[in-house]
Design a protein that fits this description.
This protein has 14 helices and two strands. It has about 325 residues and is mainly alpha-helical. GO terms for molecular function: heme binding; lactoperoxidase activity; metal ion binding.
């Protein structure tokens, strides 16, 4: 890990970019816990390091958890809530059932440590935002500033999820529209999709590209032939074993870099929603830019993550600081 790990330890002292402001985000500040919980960053960083070293998929898992939280009614920790007899929560929506347990476990561990240090002070949504940033940095990605002071939301409804998160087969027009509704442009979309430079996807999510693709082709012709052949062998028994999966980035699966975009140019995109960006006239220029220039990708990714991190946030009496991240403080909520 070497240099990347050393830089990760220095992230509280770096400042590479700034967040856009709005009337709501003006209530956030990078020093929100400076007096109420001075060791906030140190505690999160310690939990993050231990978890990522023990389970190398934690970074990708937490990045996905963060995105699935923020895109549905904003960054308010609603995806962390467990269902109960009165409410089916977001985490039990079909698309969220594959969210890895390591990401939830990380937030539980961080919240427990922070409650021991400074009880009833740090929100679960702030923990998720900072842990995600720290993990991205730890695996080689860019550092970006996170303003703090989010409150945890009062609602979590599984029925809302499908309207805000794209499926692997969602058309690119619909995906662009979904992002634009949240103030994210095409450049943001392509940069955020670059998070697929780490992590994996289950075979069922791309099997339609491998088997019986169309009347004229058994396999999606945008696949590199040898890559498709390898995936078919890997996923041969996926209907019997739904846990079978493949790395999103076949070349550097555990490193946050721009290889994802180079893969798209070579027909090595795993999901249909990945590969289409290399040919669509709106997204292709950004794919080509990020493939040629990793710095441009990192800068665009940092900006986009900052925009996502303040989408739909709750402040003041719009939310609460949960005692447990998986449950509202009041049963009436």
């Amino acid at each position: 890990m070497g240099l990347v790990f050393l830089l990760f330890l220095l992230i509280p002292y770096l400042s590479l970019s700034s967040e856009a402001k709005s009337p709501t985000t003006d209530q956030l500040t990078p020093n929100y816990y400076a007096k109420s919980c001075p060791r906030f960053h140190d505690i999160i960083r310690g939990v993050v390091v231990d978890k990522q070293i023990a389970h190398s998929t934690t970074a990708a898992a937490t990045l996905r958890l963060f995105f699935h939280d923020c895109m549905v009614d904003g960054c308010d920790g609603s995806v962390l809530i467990s269902s109960n007899p009165f409410n089916k929560a977001e985490r039990d929506a079909d698309i969220n059932l594959s969210l890895p347990g390591d990401s939830f476990d990380l937030i539980v561990k961080a919240k427990t440590a922070l409650e021991l240090e400074c009880p009833a002070t740090v929100s679960c949504s702030d923990i998720l935002a900072v842990a995600t940033r720290d993990l991205v940095t730890m695996v080689g990605g860019p550092f970006y500033n996170i303003n703090l002071g989010r409150k945890d939301g009062f609602t979590s409804n599984a029925a809302k999820v499908k309207y805000h998160l794209a499926q692997p087969t969602t058309p690119i027009d619909k995906i662009i529209s979904m992002f634009e509704e949240k103030g994210l442009d095409v450049a943001d979309l392509v940069a955020l999709m670059g998070s697929h430079t780490i992590g994996f996807s289950h075979c069922k999510e791309f099997s339609a590209r491998l088997y019986h693709y169309s009347k004229n082709a058994d396999t999606d012709p945008t696949f590199h032939p040898k890559y498709a052949e390898g995936l078919k062998k890997l996923c041969a028994n996926y209907t019997k074993d739904p846990t079978m999966s493949a790395f999103n980035d076949v070349m550097t699966p555990n490193k946050f870099d721009n290889m994802y975009y180079l893969n798209l140019q070579r027909g090595l995109g795993l999901l249909a929603t990945d590969q289409v960006m290399a040919s669509d006239k709106r997204t292709k220029p950004y794919v080509d830019l990020f493939a040629a220039n990793q710095t441009a990708f990192f800068e665009a990714f940092a900006r986009a993550m900052q925009k996502v991190s303040v989408y739909g946030i709750k402040t003041g009496n719009q939310g609460e600081v949960r005692r447990r991240c998986d449950a509202f403080n009041s049963i009436s909520t």
